[in-house]
Amino acid sequence: MKHLFVKRAVAATLAAALPMAAFAADKPESLKIGMTAFLTGPASVFGVPARDATEILVENINADGGINGVPIEVSFIDEGAGAESLTSEYRRMVESGGAEVMLASISSGNCQTLAPLAEDLQVPNLMWDCGTQRIFEENDYKYVFRTQANATPEMLASVIYLLKTKPDFKTIAVVNQDYAWGRDSWDIFSTALKAMKPDVEVVAEFFPKFGSPDFSTEISRLQALSPDVILSTSWGGDLDTFVQQASQRGLLNSSTFVLPLAESSLERLGSALTDGHIVGARGDHYFLHPERRDDADFQAFMKQYEEKTGEVSVYPVFHASQAIAALKTAYEKAIADNGVDWPSEEQLLAALEGLEFQGLGRPVTLREDHQGVEAQLMGTSVQTGDYDFATLENIMIFDGAELTTPVGEISTEWVGSLDAGFIDSVSVDTYEN
Amino acid sequence: MSSTTEQRKVNARMKNPLFLLWIIGIVAIAAVPFAMPSLQLLVSFAMAKGLGVLGVTVLLRAGQVSFGHALYFGISAYAGAFLMASMPGTDFVIVLIAGTLGAVLAGLLVGLFVVRYRGIFFGMLNLAFSMIFWSILEKFYHYTGGADGIRLPRPMVLGNTLDHVQFELVLFYTAVVLMVALGWFTTRWFASPVGQLFQTIKTNETRLEYLGVSPRRALLSGYLLSAVLCGVGGVMMGMAQGVVTPEYVWWVRSAEMVFIAVLGGAGSVQGAFLGALIYEFVRTYASVYAGDIWQMILGGFLLIIILFAPGGLIAILNSLFNRGSGKGGTGK
Amino acid sequence: MNFAIFLLALFDGIAYAALVFIVALGLTLIFGVMRILNVAHGSLYAIGAYASVTLTGYALSLGFAPVLAFPLMIVSAVLVGILIGAPLEKFLLRRIYDKSEVLQLLMTFAVFMILEDVQRLVWGTRPYFDSSALQVLGNVTVFGVTYTAYQMILLPLVAIALLLGMRFFLRHTVTGKLITATTEDREAAQSIGVDADKVFLFTFVIGAILAGLGGALASPTTSILPGMGADMIVLSFAVVATAGLGQIEGAALTALMIGLGRSFAVYLYPEISVLVPYLIMVLVLLVRPEGLFGTPGARKI
Questions:
Q1: Residue B331 placed within a domain
Q2: pLDDT tens across C238-293, in order?
Q3: What is the pTM assigned to this prediction?
Q4: A76 lies in the same domain as A211
Q5: Structural domain of A59
Q6: Which of A210, B128, B225, C2 has the fewest CB atoms within 10 Å of its CB?
Q7: Nearest CB to A82 within list B139, B165, B247
Q8: With b meaning 16 or more CB within 10 Å and e meaning fewer, what string describes B262-292?
């Protein structure tokens, strides 16, 4: 810490003395970054693919000579080890481990904990996966950026896709996990739905506990109510169990399911997810992305990933690719803009402002409030026989900028102010599959 | 019964070489922010957790195990967070007091009910109350922030606004002072008449009844002390973390506190802090260097302690320091 | 709430209760005989589920009929009992029977932590799902609501069979009587020549098999993933304490109360369904401090 103090003090003095000068940092041996992800616990269905993807991406960058000759060195912190271990390890990595940039985190709760900490520690932090829209709506951060969308555009895309493909449904029920994401996502979804189609009736709201092993009772009740549409923003084991149990008991035949996170479960659900249900991907993330699947870099990565893990890519892989792309692009931009060998922290932060970068999906830009603007991909499940699980048809890719809450506004208020006209005003590209 | 007499003997012995060791230990901890600043936060966490473990230790002296004491840890942290949310810029001392008061109040309400029970029922009822509180935190997410928890922003300190480095130093040394003061108080309390009656619950509860003493009242006094200790630990932890989540109350948290109490040396005041310190180190470094198997490492560590040193780390220390006299107890 | 809905909630509650009972039965048996609250029971439950899914998946890939899933569940449960339960008792628990309950409990907690990571190392973090057993039995439709025959008929039947079988075993067979005698008074039993070590080993293996069986039976209905054991163990603890320690019939009744309470809550007031087991526990213990079927003499533990 002493070292850090000195460094900061020197930097501050110099900055005061020479406000206009650009300071290049010395080119380091390697660019050390830290990434937090769930390696244990239920959310490891996201953390482990993201870690594997990050390792591949970093190896690829290093094989090409790194960033301006500097190789990237990434270490991982397990979010599943609990908040104390996470925060103390995060600090250790920044204060004495030499990490220049941190990538955190999957859990929205951890993002809320780590964002102020990153500010205190003055370390650039790319929020690479967490969904809560509150971060930049409730606070301003200098060091924190989000390299993907948040819950608002993700839910809006689901609502609009639903209203475009099934405009005259009457009733809806929700089965979400009982924690912040399940509650927040339903708040946004239901507010948007009421604003754009006020005549819909919500017939049941279930929030079974996180990690619930059994949805039998909820399914019985849903069968008795038989709503036109059933929404579930659940993920991982919870979503798998719910869809499997519902499929087994024929609920998938009588209601249309809207599953904004099911892209990450497609392979595991196999034949249980029948045709005609709405699937989302928390962004334009899909291993058969219609605009990207013919690109050489996309194909090469998908092949590498499948060889390494034996599974197809899911959205956390895309999110990891965006964070790494943002990192690389920002450093390269800062180096080019300032004509230096290696940028200072200030130069890096300046480069991150308004940055445009491209991971495995469409290009993403960082807004002035540091929120990423990311396209949203939605589709309908179909069992084609090409894979032994459902893939997507009637894919729509929505432009992110129009779905993201305008800077300075609060999501629920903004979403509530929309109306039916909004559905047709949104730009969308449609693909058959 | 033999363990209490053993304990007394240990207490007597402690006057000499071990006492010196504790002094050295406390001085060493106090030097951490200067000597090894990267460990400062970890040690802060360990001391806060150690206070909670001390609460569990108190109950162990009466032979009772609570599987739900994270309840008080969490209640005080949330009390502090709510206070900060409703009155931004509240003073550090007031947050500390408010949090502790929250724990005392909850301890009294729950305590009046659970002191009627012993053993497994005592443990399970505490668990039930902590799980009910946990569910409330998750359910009323509009107020509690649900699983994401709520922020506990940095409070003022005696009217001054501090930056994070200064505040963490204040927090660190407050934790040191609280550790020494409450540790000393608890040791004295064990030796006091009330404390003695309380510990008789473990060895011979019927004797208490013959003496005309209400075992429930005796247990309640110890229960309140344990709630206070957990409460102080919880609000300190909340301030050190800057955020409070329902995980504070989750049953694994309670089990972890019992785990640390036994690791340190069941029933030992110093053991609670020593255990917490070692536990935090093992846990953090195991999760860093053996990400996939940190639980296994901790579990194996605990197994070894139970099988080969059931008296915990304290018993190991005791035997090391009494090797000269020939019979160092392994805690049996 | 009309009669049809009442019946629907009843069916759901019973199916859920059956599964909870099977797991709690093993826990309460071990507790009744050995006075050890086995936290690792949750891991045995999870491993039973994993083993069953793995074996079934393997059998299906070899081209066997899905009906083979049923015998494989029993095989998995027995494997859990013999390969994990037996060594656990013989090499670990046996060494600490003379120690305090806190130490015994913590030892099982340590084993639980180790087994949690073992599961992850063996089966990874990806959720498994294999419902072939469920599909074999098909569906039943009641009041326009489709149930799986597996959950609505098979699970309750297995639970009832286990309850009756366990009663018969403990009261009417020699081994069962030896177990009961050892439970009542270990020293007296030993003095008349009962090998208490053997009784404990046997009991623990049976308990472990029941945990594994619970997991195996749950496996066709739910995703099998890391952490599933932790939830089950808290629930079965609640059942065991509410029932009264070592009370098999009490465990059955408590499991039913919790199952029904939960499913009626989902119909009437879904927000409290999570709280149901704990509310029932607090209410029962408020009225009967030794549990539903417990006797005051048990206070010494």
A1: no
A2: 898 888 878 889 999 999 999 999 889 888 888 788 888 888 988 888 888 888 88
A3: 0.84
A4: no
A5: 2-130+295-360
A6: C2
A7: B247
A8: bbbbbbbbbbbbbbbbbbbebbbbbbbeebb
